[in-house]
């Protein structure tokens, strides 16, 4: 409680003394179940009431249409491609904050301060304990190796988590090499891409495949038992391997936020972002959803720590984002989802 | 022109303008999202189309056509078959099956898809039981069809959507005059032949209406198709929008799809333009139901029980178990009461409005004696049913916000007061979206209900001194009420289940049952959404029971 009070005092001072009856409007593509603990912590710390709406797709279109009257102060998304989209469409505004710049590594925020990453998730491999128990290291390139023929499961190639990975391959190796890789990966699939990341673990337990591509936090969620006893069994059937590029690190996506261009409560919005990179909030990201904190040195959840040390690939997200559409087109071209 | 005719002669005056204007106004409201889409589409989509034509559309078109064919076959076989059994035969439980067959209406397709994937997964209960029976140890050694496929998706949608066919066909079988069927029987055509040669051809318009409702639902589905890995046109629209960040391109595909759908609807209507079936205003004498032998009765029971079990029983039981586990461990979700209220309030408001406007549009067509403009308005007002909810919602964003911002601008100028987002801020936008999306249902019902009232009845009422409002109040409304009532309940259930438009257009701090379920499903914690999912189904049950009662009374 004392940390909360301390933050409350600091925040109140930063905000100019008065924190009563303030409000903040949040548009988010992050699911309500994951947001609520953070919002509650913020309200406790500052007394600010947070009004939120969870929108899956169309957040950008809605803010754009609402225009000058849009009530949104903060726009939050779970994928950097969406964040960059927002700033490309001119729906965000520049924020100059020493706190944010100090907390968020340069590769995970916009150089111009239009958006900031807040938590990180790695695109990892779930591998069968039973059939690939000895596998300790893996490269993304190897996933296209014929030795895994008929052994790989993955969700739709058009899902943002996958287009982001494919865009990273294009950025690193060029479009031709990326096409060869994706074609090879397609040839290795055990079944048509469908479902979500967790289905990969379940399909491994069912013997459908040996390796599945998924986000890191799903394993934490499944192992914790928050998703029910069934899912715990799925997660216990797999080991998590943090794959790397042959000459690089692990592909990392971020969830992040931006201050809306027409934010009616701009100062409150900046204060909220700064709160989200505080040690307390970074801890909530880790506890509520088993994400990697964006802030260097913030503690990682023990379940995640078990996967081994995360060595994030250093390719800047803004560079990867430029190839997002090409990645989506490539998925169609190789008929990945067919 | 209408003024001179206001003398008491036999043909009533043509009360044209007022009705026509009101009807056109409704049509304009319904066309607003299409206008929004045209606006988006006209911004251009760069070089998207060559790519779409080469890699996306051929496959999406093929999958869509195959999916619709599959759904059409499954839904019409079950819907027509069950309707025939419960109207033409006597067997144990018939009265119960009569309305239980409607239950899948309460089951949202995306929830059925989540439930079935769990039930039929290699490590789910069904395959585990089968392995136990056959003594197979490893899941991979048992061959079992994968529901994550085109066939699986078609079967699932058909099983959940057949009640649309059942509802319309059953109503028609009930009102079919006994004379024709009995004539067929006298001429030696037994049960099956009487069905094939008399009942079925006569029921064709009703079957067509029911099947097209089911197919529209299937075409516009995104949750189930995407989850089961089927790449339909609607999924492609979605993917173009989200992954190419091309709302322009998505709007173009959506408009093309809308044009195709409307063309098909037109062709279908044109094909049966001469099949108008006159019906008497009083209920015709019903053909007596036959009592088959013991084996036949057993078959009837099985044929009726199976669709209910598969389309409703299995997924509902799965939800109930999952929900009970959740409640036992974590208690009821704290927001549940509020979400139930939000869902029912939005759906209720939309139902009232949709039924009023739908009746108005259909009535205007009658009161202007089917003036071409009134017919056009009627068709235009029905357009929302042919659009996926997400597309409709995106199309609505621009016109709605433009309206809100214009009002705000005027108020600021004139009074120095900001009204902010008047429609979107208060949830009116959502009600509007539901009304446009489902307006076709009450329009169709009111049209059909009114068509059954012969014009001679109007003339009789007017010669007895009834004015236009008296005619509406004491003749048309009471006679069309059952049909419109059933439509109202259908709108309510559909609005409760609606997801994509709800997700995009609701105001800040508002969650409905459907958005709650989706919020959990999107992060893979289906179990946490089970209670809300079950609540959607439970809230849908009373209206479904009422639909059944209303249509039973008619029979």
Automatic annotation (TrEMBL), chain B:
Membrane topology category: Multi-pass membrane protein
GO cellular component: plasma membrane
Entry keyword annotation includes Cell membrane: yes
Subcellular location: Cell inner membrane; Cell membrane
SUPFAM superfamilies xref list: MetI-like
PROSITE patterns: ABC_TM1
Transmembrane segment boundaries: 60-87, 99-117, 149-173, 194-216, 249-267, 295-320, 340-364, 376-402, 414-435, 477-496, 530-552
One Pfam family named in its UniProt record: BPD_transp_1
Highest taxon, organism lineage: Bacteria
Residues covered by the ABC transmembrane type-1 domain: 61-266, 340-547
Protein's GO biological process: transmembrane transport
Chain segments annotated as coiled-coil in the UniProt record: none
Main location per the UniProt record: membrane
Key words of the record: Cell inner membrane, Cell membrane, Membrane, Transmembrane, Transmembrane helix, Transport
Family: Belongs to the binding-protein-dependent transport system permease family.
Designated name of the protein: ABC transporter permease
Lineage, uppermost ranks: Bacteria, Pseudomonadati, Pseudomonadota, Alphaproteobacteria, Hyphomicrobiales
Protein's gene: fbpA3
């Amino acid at each position: 409680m004392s940390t909360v009070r301390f933050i409350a005092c600091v925040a109140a001072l930063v905000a100019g003394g008065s924190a009563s009856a303030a409000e903040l409007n949040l548009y988010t593509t992050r699911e309500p179940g994951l947001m609520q603990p953070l919002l509650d912590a913020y309200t406790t710390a500052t007394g600010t009431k947070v009004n939120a709406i969870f929108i899956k797709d169309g957040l950008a279109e809605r803010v754009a249409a609402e225009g000058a009257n849009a009530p949104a102060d903060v726009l939050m998304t779970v994928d950097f491609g969406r964040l960059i989209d927002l700033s490309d469409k001119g729906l965000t505004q520049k924020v100059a904050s020493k706190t944010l710049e100090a907390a968020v590594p340069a590769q995970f925020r916009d150089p111009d301060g239009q958006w900031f990453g807040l938590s990180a998730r790695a695109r990892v491999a779930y591998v069968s304990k039973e059939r690939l128990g000895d596998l300790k290291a893996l490269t993304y390139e190897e996933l296209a190796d014929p030795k895994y023929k008929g052994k790989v499961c993955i969700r739709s190639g058009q899902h943002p988590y996958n287009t982001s990975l494919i865009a990273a391959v294009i950025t690193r190796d060029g479009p031709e090499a990326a096409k060869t890789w994706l074609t090879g990966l397609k040839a290795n699939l055990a079944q048509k891409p469908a479902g979500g990341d967790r289905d990969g673990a379940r399909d491994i337990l069912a013997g459908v495949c040996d390796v599945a591509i998924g986000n890191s936090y799903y394993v934490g969620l499944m192992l914790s038992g928050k998703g029910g006893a069934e899912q715990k069994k799925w997660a216990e059937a797999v080991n998590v391997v943090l794959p790397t590029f042959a000459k690089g690190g692990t592909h990392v996506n971020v969830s992040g936020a931006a201050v809306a261009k027409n934010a009616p409560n701009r100062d409150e919005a900046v204060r909220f972002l700064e709160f989200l990179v505080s040690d307390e909030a970074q801890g909530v990201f880790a506890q509520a959803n088993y994400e990697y904190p964006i802030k260097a040195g913030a503690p990682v959840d023990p379940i995640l720590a078990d996967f081994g040390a995360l060595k994030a690939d250093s390719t800047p997200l803004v560079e990867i984002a430029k190839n997002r559409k090409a990645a989506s087109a490539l998925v169609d071209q190789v008929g990945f989802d067919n | 022109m209408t003024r001179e005719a206001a003398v008491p002669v036999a043909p009533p005056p043509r009360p044209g303008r007022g009705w026509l204007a009101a009807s056109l106004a409704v049509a304009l409201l319904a066309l607003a999202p299409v206008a929004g889409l045209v606006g988006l589409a006209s911004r251009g989509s760069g070089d998207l189309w060559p790519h779409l034509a080469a890699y996306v559309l051929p496959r999406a078109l093929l999958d869509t056509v195959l999916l619709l064919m599959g759904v059409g076959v499954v839904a019409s076989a079950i819907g027509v078959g069950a309707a025939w059994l419960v109207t033409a035969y006597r067997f144990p439980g018939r009265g119960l099956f009569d309305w239980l067959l409607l239950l899948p209406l309460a089951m949202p397709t995306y929830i059925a898809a989540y439930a079935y994937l769990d039930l039929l997964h290699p490590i789910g209960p069904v395959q585990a039981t089968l392995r136990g029976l056959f003594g197979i140890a490893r899941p991979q050694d048992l061959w079992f069809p994968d529901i994550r496929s085109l066939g699986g998706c078609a079967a699932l949608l058909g099983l959940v959507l057949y009640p649309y066919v059942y509802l319309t066909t059953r109503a028609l079988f009930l009102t079919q005059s006994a004379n024709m069927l009995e004539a067929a029987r006298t001429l030696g055509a037994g049960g099956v032949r009487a069905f094939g040669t008399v009942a079925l051809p006569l029921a064709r318009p009703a079957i067509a209406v029911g099947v097209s409702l089911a197919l529209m639902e299937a075409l516009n589905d995104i949750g189930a198709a995407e989850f089961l890995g089927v790449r339909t046109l609607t999924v492609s629209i979605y993917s173009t929008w989200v992954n190419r960040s091309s709302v322009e391109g998505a709007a173009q595909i959506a408009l093309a799809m809308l044009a195709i759908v409307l063309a098909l609807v037109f062709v279908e209507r044109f094909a049966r333009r001469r099949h108008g079936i006159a019906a008497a205003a009083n209920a015709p004498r019903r053909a007596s139901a036959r009592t088959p032998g013991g084996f036949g009765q057993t078959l009837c029971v099985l044929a009726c029980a199976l669709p209910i079990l598969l389309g409703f029983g299995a997924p509902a039981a799965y939800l109930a178990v999952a929900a009970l586990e959740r409640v036992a461990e974590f208690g009821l979700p704290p927001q549940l009461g509020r979400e139930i209220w939000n869902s029912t309030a939005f759906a209720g408001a939309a139902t009232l409005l949709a039924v009023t406007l739908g009746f108005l549009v259909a009535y205007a067509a009658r009161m202007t004696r089917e003036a071409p403009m009134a017919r056009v308005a009627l068709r235009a007002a029905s357009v929302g049913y042919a659009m996926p909810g997400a597309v409709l919602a995106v199309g609505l964003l621009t016109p709605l916000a433009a309206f809100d911002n214009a009002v705000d601008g005027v108020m600021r100028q004139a009074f120095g007061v900001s009204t902010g987002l008047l429609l979107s801020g208060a949830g009116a936008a959502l009600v509007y979206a539901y009304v446009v999306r489902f307006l076709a249902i009450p329009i169709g019902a009111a049209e059909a209900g009114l068509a059954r009232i012969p014009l001679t009845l109007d003339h009789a009422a007017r010669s007895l001194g009834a004015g236009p409002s008296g005619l509406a109040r004491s003749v048309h409304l009471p006679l069309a009420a059952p049909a419109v009532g059933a439509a109202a309940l259908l709108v309510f259930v559909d609005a409760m289940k609606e997801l994509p438009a709800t997700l995009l257009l609701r105001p800040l701090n508002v969650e409905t049952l459907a958005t709650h379920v989706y919020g959990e499903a999107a992060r893979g914690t289906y179990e946490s959404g089970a209670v809300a999912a079950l609540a959607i189904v439970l809230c849908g049950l009373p209206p479904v029971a009422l639909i059944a009662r209303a249509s039973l009374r008619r029979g």
